Amino acid sequence: MRIGIIGPESSGKSTLARYLAKRYNGTYIQEYAREYVEKKGSLEVSYDELCEMARHQIEEMDAASHSSSEILFFDTELIVTKVWFDYAFGQVPEWFNQAIKQYPMDVYLLTYPDLPWTQDGARYNGSDEMRMELFHRYEAEIQALDIPYYIIKHTD
Predict the structure, then answer these.
(1) Which of 5, 29, 80, 156 is least surrounded, with the fewest CB atoms within 10 Å of its CB?
(2) Tens digit of each residue's pLDDT (9 = 90 or more) over 122-151
(3) Who contacts 97 (Cβ-Cβ below 8 Å, separation ≥6)?
């Protein structure tokens, strides 16, 4: 089972993915974009750099498809990168759209942006408007793929 955990920045994705992987004895696949921008030391990413990050994600998806783990929890995945291609550059490479079809999730957990936004050096923009715009874009992409999903909201 492949579970994609996606949502706007600072909405609890990493915490949720790590918790679920531990709770259900699954495999946690961490977000590569965070690692990339932390190493680079800048949030500014060119189109070519985003292509490089996307190719790395596809390699991770391919490796995960050969995993012996029964449950894989992806802390973000290809839809997030697709939305960023479109948001930042107004285009998505066709090879990347094909990869999304090649490595589908079985279900998505879409995190709602109801947690306070916290800057941690690897986050781009915490405005409520942008977080909601991204949430709706992610939801539309999931719906277009016709894959089941659940919206995860914070509760006190």
Answers:
(1) 156
(2) 556 667 888 899 999 999 999 999 999 999
(3) 82
